[in-house]
């Protein structure tokens, strides 16, 4: 599995199929922002990261322009990532409560993290065509994570991406289509989805999502993964 995931990672990193996203991610990497002016930027698609034997997959929207697009690792180098790593560490999934660079030694145990769209999009809003162009990567990723049992979509975009990907894998999505909500659970084939609000600053600063709320979802995901 690890070798197959490495091959998939290489394909993701080389992808140039969405011209708008290619232009944006590379422009951000060239122009930078003042606080990171002296740092090299990744400026390419950001692959998934974590334990090949993961039973829990966390699924976000897309890399942040000055987070994952800078560091080369999903949810790394921005405040959303800081919030997420703290919760993952507290629930036993991450070796450290913070992740600042792609080579900081942070390790995930029992969990894998990916984004539905692998390139940083302008205004953090990928188009439907860009979403669809990226879906085959997620479909293959889910199939390669052979021990995967629980998917934790971070936000409604991740929820929709998870349902579409599981449908593409041939698993029947319940009708009516399950609606996203924090703590909402649904089963699709052999997988269980457990929804969580996205750890964006918009949600964390307003306390729509708190550390106890996110940790409870992660605790529940781990419990469901062990019981299935």
Number of helices: 8
Superfamily (CATH H level) name: Uracil-DNA glycosylase-like domain
N→C terminal distance: 20 Å
Strands of the widest sheet, in order across it, are 1-3-2-4-6-5
- Main beta sheet: strand number and arrangement? 6 strands, mixed
Reading off the top of the CATH hierarchy, the class is best stated as Alpha Beta
Uncertain ranges: none
The CATH topology name reads Uracil-DNA Glycosylase, subunit E
Question: What integer value in Å does the Rg equal?
Answer: 16 Å
Overall helicity? 40-55%
Shape: globular
Description:
The chain is an alpha/beta fold and 228 residues long. The chain has one domain: Uracil-DNA Glycosylase, subunit E (3-Layer(aba) Sandwich). The protein is built from eight helices and six strands; from the N terminus they run ααββααβαβαββαα. It has a six-stranded mixed β-sheet, with helices on both faces. Helix 1 packs antiparallel against helix 5. It is globular and about 45 Å long. The model has no long low-confidence stretch (mean pLDDT 97).
């Amino acid at each position: 599995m690890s070798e197959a995931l490495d091959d998939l990672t290489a394909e993701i990193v080389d992808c140039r199929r969405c011209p708008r996203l290619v232009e944006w991610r590379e422009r951000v990497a060239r122009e930078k922002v003042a606080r990171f002016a002296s740092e090299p930027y990744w400026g390419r698609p950001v692959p998934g990261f974590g334990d090949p034997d993961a039973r829990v997959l966390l699924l976000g929207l897309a890399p942040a322009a000055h987070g994952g697009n800078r560091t080369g690792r999903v949810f790394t180098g921005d405040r959303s990532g800081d919030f997420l790593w703290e919760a993952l560490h507290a629930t036993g999934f991450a070796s450290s409560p913070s992740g600042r660079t792609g080579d900081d030694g942070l390790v995930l145990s029992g969990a894998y993290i990916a984004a539905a769209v692998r390139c940083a999009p302008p205004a953090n809003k990928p188009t439907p065509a860009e979403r669809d162009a990226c879906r085959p990567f997620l479909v293959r990723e889910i199939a390669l994570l052979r021990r995967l049992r629980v998917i934790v979509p971070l936000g409604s975009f991740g929820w929709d991406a998870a349902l579409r990907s599981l449908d593409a894998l041939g698993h029947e999505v319940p009708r009516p289509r399950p609606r996203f909500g924090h703590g909402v659970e649904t089963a699709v084939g052999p997988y269980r989805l457990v929804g969580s609000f996205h750890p964006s600053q918009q949600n964390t600063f307003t306390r729509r999502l708190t550390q106890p709320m996110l940790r409870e979802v992660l605790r529940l995901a781990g419990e469901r993964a062990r019981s299935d």
